[in-house]
Amino acid sequence: MLTRHLTRGLKTGAAGGLAFGLFVTLIGTPLVRYAESLKGGHSHSGGSAIVSDAVGSITSVAGGVVFGALLGTVVFGALFYLLEPALPGTLGTKSYVLGAGGFLTVSGAPWLLFPPQPPGVEAALATGVRLRWYLLLMVAGAFACGLSGYAYTRFRARGSRLPPALGAVVPICLLPVVAALGPANPVSGSVPLSLTSVFRTIVGVGQMGLWFVLASVHAWLLRRDRVGDIEGGDVDDSGRSALAGTPPSVFDP
Amino acid sequence: MTAVDDSVHDRLTDARIALTPTQLALAVTLLAALGFVLLFAQAPMLHDSMHDFRHAAGVVCH
Q: Among A37, A45, A211, which would you mutate to test the B interface (most chain B Cβ atoms within 10 Å of its Cβ)?
């Protein structure tokens, strides 16, 4: 069962990596080059670049592919295997719930403190300090997502008077409070404000798109595997037990 | 959802049977290292190689 989950995660990661690699190639890199051309050089590596732009573009695309593959394997392979019984939702929606949590953890929460910046924007805080806060907010994001799912499930199971949605939303709303505790990071640079906002939108849509592709591919693979198992009489305890607890409406489109 | 004889605890137990602690530690370490190298490593060579990707992924602490 673990092997099947991990294989599914690898396939999911392959699709996500391909999608994000395309995003970096077609949108990310040209946008970064454009922002750099406005500023004329990106100096935070300390002057002269070691890697040329052409090589940097190729390695960056490879980085995007590996990043997508890594998220697919770790989040939709290993984590989904572990968390599936606890995730709220049905067979078709659990992947999306995990995907939303993944986005909040990896990108959403850290962005509350350090939103995406085009090259040319220099931060006042030292890299080490920013790195520590970035990782801290990732942990806070993961914790908030876990708490959100837990509260939702508990409120629903107990028939509590508080709506389950409230339990799901409140922990997420606490994330900006945590981010507000972080140090101020004034930025400087000659990049126009409009470019910065466009850049943020595109990067945000890119990350959400990556998670959406990952979750969709995973939901599709999961449904295909499990419905196939039931029809073919194959033995997969995970599929059978999950389907046993799922209302038949799940199979309707 | 109705009571299903499957929980996170069961999954954890199954994983413990399927994997040795060494395998698990190795996998976690390798994947975490890969993630760190991709997103945060500051060595000039790595920084320059991953520069465009990091901007495109919205990672600014680099």
A: A45
| DSSP conformation letters of A17-86 | HHHHHHHIIIIIHHHHHHHHHHHT---TTTSS-SS-HHHHHHHHHHHHHHHHHHHIIIIIIIIHHHHTTT
Torsion angle (degrees, nearest 10) of CA A197, A202, A207, A208: 100
pLDDT digits (tens, 9 = 90+) for A207-244: 999 999 999 999 999 999 888 777 765 545 444 444 44
pLDDT (tens, 9 = 90+) of chain B, 62 residues, equals: 434 568 899 999 999 998 999 999 999 999 999 999 998 888 888 888 898 999 999 997 66
Are B49 and A63 a contacting pair at CB < 8 A?
yes
B34 contact residues in A (CB cutoff 8 A): 66, 70
Residue of A nearest to B62 (CA): A127
Q: Is the Cβ–Cβ distance between A108 and A204 less than 8 Å?
A: no
Tokens found for residue B5: 């004889």
For chain B, say whether A155 makes contact (Cβ under 8 Å). Answer: no
**Phi and psi angles of residue A187, each rounded to the nearest 5 degrees, phi first:** -115, 155
Q: Which of A86, A131, A203 sits opposite B58 (nearest CB)?
A: A203
Give contacts of B48 with chain A, Cβ < 8 Å.
45, 49-51, 56
Vertex A147, ends A146 and A151: CA angle to 5°? Answer: 120
The answer to whether A66 contacts B44, with C-beta atoms less than 8 Å apart, is no
Cβ separation A86–B40 shorter than 8 A: no
> Residues A187-209: pLDDT tens digits?
888 788 899 999 999 999 999 99
Q: At what angle do helices A193-232 and A94-103 cross, to 10 degrees?
A: 150
